[in-house]
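for the writeup, i need someone to sanity check this before i put it in the appendix. the sequnce is what the collaborator sent (i think, or maybe the updated version? ugh). structure was predicted straight from it, no edits. if anything looks off just tell me and ill rerun, i have time this weekend
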Amino acid sequence: MTMQTFLTSQAPAPVGPYSQGVAAGGLLFLAGQGPFDESGALVGETFAEQVHRTFQNLAAVAAEAGTDLGAVVRLGAYLNSLDDFAEFNAIAAEYLPQPYPARTTIQSDLLGFLIELDAVLVLDDD
């Protein structure tokens, strides 16, 4: 199987041995993204600001691979507090068109930020 990796300067660079995105088998796997700018600095004081930036980072990596968030088939959402679940749902609907992807949402002890997202996108529908 052939794999292709993707790296964009429009999202924070990886801080470990991983790629921002990897395409294989007709799918694009996006690594976890958080609310950070291209330099790695935290963006947003509110949960909503952090969610928007995190989706923007996912979208930037998807764009580097030639696709967009409309191709998401699975979304992993890691929230610092499940008290933010309803607000997350409202914002996610702005970025993810119907039919909505499969999703897992879990509470996670994120260090210094409120959300992380990862995703799997379909690159072709054959």
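The first strand starts at residue 3 and ends at 6. Residues 11 and 122 are 21 Å apart (CA to CA).
thx in advance!!
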